[in-house]
Specification:
about 325 residues, FAD/NAD(P)-binding domain, 5-stranded parallel β-sheet, alpha/beta, binds NADPH dihydro-nicotinamide-adenine-dinucleotide phosphate, 7 helices
Amino acid sequence: MMTREHTRCLIVGSGPAGYTAAIYAGRANLNPVLYCGMQTGGQLTQTTEVENFPGYPQGVDGNQMMLDLRQQAERFGADIRDGELVKADFSKKPYVLTTDRGLEIEAESVIIATGASAKYLGLPDEEKYSGQGVSACATCDGFFYRKKVVAVVGGGDTACEEAIYLSGLCSKVYMIVRKPYLRASDVMKRRVEQNEKIEVLYEHNTLGLYGENGLEGAHLVKRMGQTDEQRYDLPIDGFFLAIGHKPNTDIFKEWLDLDEVGYIKTLDGTPKTNLEGVFAAGDCADSVYRQAVVAAGSGCKAALEAERYLASLNG
Ligand code: NDP
């Protein structure tokens, strides 16, 4: 059995960034090999309909869109494989990455598009109502809660942004914040405070969710000081998590410059990392925009840079 393979261009991840990189690298005759990772199709397969990706006037099912992107990449010769890369050795060129089946891939260039995963509270009810009231993306799913009552969990910039976005659609937005204050930047705090549709529930935690046919509400607890607590049920139709994302970059942290949260640092608006021939695209390198269309754009840039880099190697 072969335990080592060689490729000119290895793409890690199968979200919009990874597949777009594969389309461009395939068309440039780089014969890219793409590993899908732990969730084939990435975060968009977790949402229902994507309505804000340009080119789909009627919207598109997230899973369908990812299948379309995959087929498009395959049409140009991308070798798309199930499985994860579990180890990276960037100590020398060619770089070597190891799959979960023990295959070593020697790569002249690497495009990292491993995405980020939304954090959840860890309540069993979050899974139970997933897609039926629980979401970790207001821009993806907010539209389905028009004129309804929703809650956003978290007190950072993302939570404020999501709450403000939802306030444009929903009749009422609660923010469930565990501290007595918002961690968000001053400007976002001010916008939240001035928004009549948003009510911040400080010092609140979620104990569980309830509902017979989909989500109907949340069991909350307000803790004041060490001993005082008040438990009650809050009727809501939607429960949005905004407690941060975790970029999927663990296997690269030994080699690449990451920010304090783990996002890959790229150079001057390009997908270049601190290592020659290693590029980062999509949410694993983007803590700010986190949109499919932005990820797709950065996947394109990464493939163009990989192509240039490989051409420079050959004089
Ligand atoms: P943050 O880490 O800044 O905030 C996470 C929030 O979730 C905090 O309020 C935190 O509470 C809360 N939280 C975390 N875990 C739990 C839990 N288990 N239960 C309840 N609450 C919890 O993440 P963001 O995604 O908001 O932001 C990430 C980075 O991206 C930040 O640097 C932010 O400034 C930046 N950003 C910038 C934007 C912009 O400039 N427009 C937009 C969005 C993000 P606590 O405060 O108690 O820890």
